[in-house]
């Protein structure tokens, strides 16, 4: 249930503005890849291209390739809807559907694929996904309450449950902890560690300790100046990146000299 | 720290900005009071003038020619029925259409086209209702006649559609004209609600692999639900009280039935008042005002019901 993605020479544009330039990287299966870098360097932009969520923004487009399973995600005959069903996403701010109960939130994606799911099967999926997101014990007695009745950390785990309920190949997370308190953050980091047995995970974070704690590989993005495109400076095993990066800029950033 | 303490103690007297705040509070609360007073005055007038009719004996009412010997309640009931029926027809037609137009404007049309369409719909709201009446009479009526005939011929087994008689001066035509009249206010309200759907929730849905239509059903429509109900009620309020269009299009009658394609069956309260008032005597006028009071209460009840529907699922509304 977990695949790798090979990105080659990817440029991302917003209209005429080149936001990210020339990214080439391999995102390994069953591991956590962290993307770090100063804000505005295009981490979110790059992440969103991996499941074609950039297309939601008018004028946004890519050049280059991202290949999963031998298929170019941007290929002419590839449906973005299909890509997103394989590559799930968790956002910076928890965004459960406020009009749905906790259980319905978990089932939101599943029901897109399969309208008439027998009740027993629905319950099974809800329990599996919520257990997978370390939330089951906290909410099992109030599955019919609105998703917005949960705390921020719980809401974010609900969003993770919603994303994994459809059993995607890859899970993208854009600063999933930046709106959360330290305890909820730890809960989600623990969860990521468990999830990587089954999923390929890419996480954007501007918290370097977090990258060091959770990820197997780390990619460093940087930007030469405002209006210039963001670039991937280097990507390597996290231990290497944090002890002996090959680029000066990486070392400066990691040691806190800028950013 | 010590140096700062002296200058940063809490000042005595009024803080700057207090005056502006007081003015604003004055203006907004007097506006609020004004609306309550106005409403109270209208209600008081209605009640004051309706009382003679409410207290009148059967014999006194028998002198009011247009009542044809009925009690006040017996007189109001078919009018209220006709009023509600025409409004319901208008809503059934206008609400789905409005949702469609609003969705198109907010989520499908390219920005330019969306703007143009928006203006067009708003413009529709600026047309006086007499014009809608004329339009209904001269344009819509001949147009829908054959359609109604066909409906009656082929679906006449469904009683409401049976027995069409031309020309189409029936409540269906009146309801259609009303539908066009309330379309702009409903569409404009719903459009605003749809445009306010949080991007966050739209993206949540798309990221799950929803198509645009699925996203709309998952994020936009549920979020807009209470707004849709409010918009429908706004439209219904207008349809309930609309006079001219109904007066001009409908051949009136005092029956309580669902034969929507037959002329001379129904009449609305407002159109009836306009129709009878010029020739009504003193008590007759009071009777008509009593029917007006009834319309007032009806509209009020509709709004209360809408509130209730909206509040019932407030927890899931996204407002918290
Ligand atoms: N929707 C958008 N439209 C136009 N430009 C955008 C949009 N989103 C981001 N950008 C620009 O793209 C660059 C990268 O932004 P982003 O990917 O959000 O950076 P990061 O996530 O690393 O902070 C920035 O210059 C930003 O202004
Ligand atoms: Mg970002």
CATH architecture assignment name of chain B: Orthogonal Bundle
Measured by residues with Cβ under 8 Å of the partner chain's Cβ, the largest interface is: A-B, 30 and 25 residues
User: What's the CATH C level of the domain at 5-99 and 170-254 in chain A?
Assistant: Alpha Beta
Principal-axes geometry of chain A comes out as globular
In total, the number of strands of chain B is 0
CATH superfamily of the domain at 5-99 and 170-254 in chain A: P-loop containing nucleotide triphosphate hydrolases
Notes on the protein architecture:
The complex is a heterodimer of chains A (259) and B (320). Chain A has 259 residues and is α/β, with parallel strands linked by helices. Chain A has a domain at 5-99 and 170-254: Rossmann fold (3-Layer(aba) Sandwich). Chain A contains ten helices and ten strands. In chain A, the strands form two sheets. A six-stranded mixed β-sheet of chain A has the order 6-7-8-3-9-10, sandwiched between helices. In chain A, helix 3 (102-113) packs parallel to helix 6, helix 4 (119-132) packs across helix 6 and helix 6 (152-164) runs parallel beside helix 7. Chain A is globular, with a radius of gyration of 18 Å. In chain A, 49% of the residues are buried. The mean pLDDT of chain A is 93. With 320 residues, chain B is an all-alpha fold. Chain B has a single domain, classed as MetI-like fold (Orthogonal Bundle), CATH 1.10.3720.10. Chain B is built from twelve helices and no strands. Chain A binds chain B through residues 51, 53, 56, 81-85, 88-89, 91, 93, 95-101, 108-109, 112-113, 146, 148-149, 159, 162-163, 166, and chain B through 198, 200-211, 214, 218-219, 222-223, 225, 315-320. The structure holds adenosine-5'-diphosphate (ADP) and magnesium ion.
């Amino acid at each position: 249930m977990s695949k790798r993605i090979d990105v080659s020479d990817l440029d991302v544009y917003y209209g005429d503005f080149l936001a990210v330039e020339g990214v080439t990287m391999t995102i390994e299966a069953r591991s956590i890849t962290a993307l770090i870098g100063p804000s505005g360097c295009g981490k979110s932009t790059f992440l969103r291209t991996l499941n074609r969520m950039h297309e939601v923004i008018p004028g946004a487009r890519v050049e280059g390739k991202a290949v999963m399973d031998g298929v170019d995600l941007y290929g002419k005959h590839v449906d973005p809807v299909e890509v997103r069903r394989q590559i799930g996403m968790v956002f910076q701010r928890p965004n459960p559907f406020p009009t749905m109960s906790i259980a319905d939130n978990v089932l939101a994606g599943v029901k897109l694929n399969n309208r008439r799911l027998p009740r027993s099967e629905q319950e099974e999926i809800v329990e599996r996904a919520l257990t997978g997101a370390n939330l089951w014990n906290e909410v099992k007695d109030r599955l019919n309450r609105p998703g917005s009745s949960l705390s921020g950390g719980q809401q974010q785990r609900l969003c993770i449950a919603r994303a994994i309920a459809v059993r995607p190949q890859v899970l993208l997370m854009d600063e999933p902890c930046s709106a959360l308190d330290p305890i909820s953050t730890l809960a989600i980091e623990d969860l990521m560690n468990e999830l990587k047995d089954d999923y390929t995970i890419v996480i954007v974070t501007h918290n370097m300790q977090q990258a060091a704690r959770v990820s197997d590989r780390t990619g460093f993005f940087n930007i030469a100046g405002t209006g210039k495109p963001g670039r991937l400076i280097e990507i390597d095993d996290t231990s290497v990146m944090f002890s002996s990066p090959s680029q000066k800029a990486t070392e400066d950033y990691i040691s806190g000299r800028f950013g | 720290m010590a140096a700062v303490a002296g200058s940063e103690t809490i000042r005595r007297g009024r803080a700057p900005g207090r005056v502006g705040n007081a003015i604003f509070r004055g203006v907004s609360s007097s506006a609020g009071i004004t609306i309550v007073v106005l409403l109270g005055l209208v209600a008081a007038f209605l009640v004051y003038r309706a009382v003679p009719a409410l207290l009148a004996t059967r014999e006194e009412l028998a002198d009011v020619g247009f009542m044809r010997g009925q009690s006040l309640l017996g007189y109001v009931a078919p009018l209220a029925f006709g009023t509600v029926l025409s409004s319901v027809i208008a809503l059934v037609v206008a609400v789905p259409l409005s949702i469609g137009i609003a969705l198109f404007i907010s989520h499908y049309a390219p920005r330019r086209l969306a703007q143009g369409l928006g203006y067009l719909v708003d413009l529709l709201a600026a047309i006086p209702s007499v014009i809608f009446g004329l339009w209904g009479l001269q344009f819509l009526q001949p147009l829908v006649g054959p359609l109604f005939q066909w409906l009656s011929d082929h679906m006449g087994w469904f009683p409401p559609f049976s027995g069409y008689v031309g020309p189409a001066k029936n409540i269906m035509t009146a309801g259609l004209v009303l539908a066009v009249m309330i379309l702009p206010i409903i569409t404009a309200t719903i459009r605003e609600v749809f445009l306010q759907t949080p991007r966050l929730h739209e993206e949540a849905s798309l990221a799950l692999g929803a198509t645009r239509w699925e996203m709309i059903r998952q994020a936009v429509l549920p979020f807009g639900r209470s707004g849709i109900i409010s918009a429908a009620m706004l439209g219904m309020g207008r349809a309930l009280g609309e006079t001219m269009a109904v007066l001009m299009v409908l051949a009136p009658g005092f029956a309580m039935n669902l034969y929507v394609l037959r002329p001379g069956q129904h009449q609305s309260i407002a159109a009836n008042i306009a129709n009878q008032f010029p020739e009504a005597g003193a008590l007759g006028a009071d009777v008509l005002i009593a029917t007006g009071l009834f319309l007032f209460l009806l509209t009020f009840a509709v709004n209360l019901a809408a509130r209730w529907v909206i509040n019932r699922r407030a927890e899931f509304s996204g407002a918290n």
